[in-house]
User: Which sequence fits this backbone?
């Protein structure tokens, strides 16, 4: 057969894009493939065996629809695009995640989908619960908390809380991170699958978990109710309250569900109970509700039957896998603990080594300091010795100076005593001189008086002599050549001589008095000079005595 003939026999294909919660895949599908063929291909690619929870969802004309397994893919009303996009999502939810989700991949896909629904606010969650769920999500992503590695800001690029919660509380991103990290630090030792399972166990208790809501009406004209379908049954809600149902029909209490056109009828198991009828806006919505009811009811009945061999094998494998993982986790925990202990021991040894090195360094520094101190002390000792010698020399000099000062003081005292004695003598001499001066002044005054009296007497005698001469010899003046008066002339001459002699004595006396007065003034001036010299010497001696006292 030729290559050309082989090419002609190859089946025609079309491309599809499968979008999971965290990845995208592309496949080539044959034109005749049914929905189940494509679904099984995706499950095999993912390694998924719990296929009954999932489905392929697509959007057409703004409405989300699930791909039918028993019809050809291209015969269904799918988007006309290349490649055709389908979302691989959980279509039905388990009642108890811990018992029903056996495979780790199943658990991981449910964790990612529920987490996205909470962040997109399709499932309402209280702020406190969102922080706790966020801490488990961080544990699943980052592992155990390590303050040295997980520094502040390491959650800055992770979406962990719904925007509603962020708007409700005026907290900064750092404050939210601090709250999440406080819970995250307490999950130490929890593996990724355990953290995801803890997340799902908290989420399954939320009122809106696993519920598909559809607008309905109790009559053909009004849409005033919501119908919710989940793993436990069918619930009727008011349009503004998706938390508390007004009425519920558990799968165990429903006898029959029928769908015709836009009407859907729920018949309770109790035949006496009222049959519930409601209307939807479109036939497709009615069919979608009917499919979800059938699928959830089948799973509900399946849970209450004996497990099939496949399920038993899967549960056994899951138990073995959990036991193996538990042992592996325990081994890893022991290894981690031993490694941490070894690291702590290493850190302790490094710390001890660093401490010893530091102590050695400090000891070396102390030794160097002690050597420097010893050298410094030696220098100080030498300086102190030199200072001691200098002080001894100064002390000797000071002792000599003290002795000299004592001798000087004694001399000064002796000189002072002699000077005081001289001063006393000088004072006595001064007193005597004053007295002598007074006496001489008085004598001079008496002599002056006597001289004055003598001169007055002389003047009177001369006047009297002149008067007598004029009376006795009136013509002597005119005729001095006459001789008869020779004897009188001789007598007159004698009187004149006597007067001249007396006058000479007075002059001599005056001269002696004046000379004595000048001598007295000269002596007084010399004595005053001597007194000044004595005062200066006494003052100098007093200063020397004061200085000697201060120095001693």
Assistant:
């Amino acid at each position: 057969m030729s290559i050309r003939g082989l090419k002609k026999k190859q089946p025609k294909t079309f491309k599809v894009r499968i979008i999971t919660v965290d990845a995208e895949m592309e496949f080539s599908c044959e034109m005749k493939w049914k929905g189940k063929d494509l679904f099984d291909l995706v499950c095999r690619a993912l390694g998924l065996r719990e296929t009954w929870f999932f489905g392929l969802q697509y959007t057409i004309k703004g409405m989300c629809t699930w791909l039918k397994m028993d019809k050809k893919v291209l015969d269904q009303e799918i988007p006309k695009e290349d490649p055709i996009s389908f979302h691989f999502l959980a279509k039905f939810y388990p009642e108890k995640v811990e018992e029903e989700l056996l495979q780790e991949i199943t658990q991981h896909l449910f964790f990612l989908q529920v987490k996205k629904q909470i962040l997109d606010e399709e499932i309402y969650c209280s702020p406190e619960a969102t922080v706790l769920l966020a801490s488990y999500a961080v544990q699943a992503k980052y592992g155990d908390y390590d303050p040295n590695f997980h520094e502040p800001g390491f959650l800055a690029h992770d979406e962990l809380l719904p925007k509603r919660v962020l708007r409700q509380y005026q907290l900064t991103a750092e404050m939210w991170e601090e709250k999440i990290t406080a819970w995250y630090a307490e999950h130490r030792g929890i593996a990724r699958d355990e953290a995801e399972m803890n997340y799902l166990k908290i989420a399954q208790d939320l009122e809106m978990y696993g519920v598909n809501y559809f607008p309905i009406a109790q009559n053909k004209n009004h849409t005033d109710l919501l119908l919710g379908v989940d793993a436990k049954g069918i619930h009727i809600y008011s349009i503004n309250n998706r938390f508390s149902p007004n009425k519920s029909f558990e799968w165990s209490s429903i006898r029959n569900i029928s769908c015709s056109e836009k009407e859907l009828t729920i018949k309770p198991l109790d035949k006496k109970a009222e049959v519930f009828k409601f209307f939807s806006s479109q036939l497709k919505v009615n069919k979608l509700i009917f499919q979800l009811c059938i699928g959830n009811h089948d799973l509900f009945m399946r849970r209450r039957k004996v497990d099939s061999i496949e399920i038993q094998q899967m549960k056994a494998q899951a138990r073995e896998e959990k036991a193996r993982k538990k042992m592996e986790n325990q081994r890893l925990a022991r290894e981690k603990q031993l490694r941490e202990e070894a690291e702590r021991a290493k850190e302790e040894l490094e710390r001890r080594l660093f401490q010893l090195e530091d102590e050695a360094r400090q000891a070396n520094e102390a030794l160097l300091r002690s050597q420097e101190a010893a050298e410094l002390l030696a220098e100080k000792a030498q300086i102190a010795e030199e200072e001691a010698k200098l002080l001894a020399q100064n002390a000797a000099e000071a002792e000599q100076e003290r002795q000299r000062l004592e001798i000087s003081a004694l001399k000064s005292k002796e000189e002072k005593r002699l000077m005081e004695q001289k001063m006393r003598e000088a004072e006595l001499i001064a007193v005597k001189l004053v007295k002598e001066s007074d006496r001489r002044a008085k004598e001079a005054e008496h002599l002056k008086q006597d001289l004055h009296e003598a001169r007055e007497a002389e003047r009177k005698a001369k006047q009297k002599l002149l008067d007598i001469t004029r009376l006795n010899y009136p013509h002597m003046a005119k005729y001095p050549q006459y001789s008869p008066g020779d004897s009188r002339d001789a007598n007159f001459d004698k009187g004149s001589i006597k007067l001249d002699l007396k006058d000479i004595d007075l002059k001599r006396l005056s001269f002696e008095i004046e000379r004595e007065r000048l001598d007295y003034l000269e002596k007084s001036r010399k004595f005053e000079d001597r007194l000044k010299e004595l005062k200066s010497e006494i003052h100098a001696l007093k200063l020397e005595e004061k200085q000697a006292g201060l120095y001693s």
Summary: The domain at 230-305 is CATH 2.30.29.30 (PH-domain like). Confidence is low (pLDDT under 50) at residues 475-499. The first strand starts at residue 13 and ends at 19. The first helix runs from residue 3 to 9.
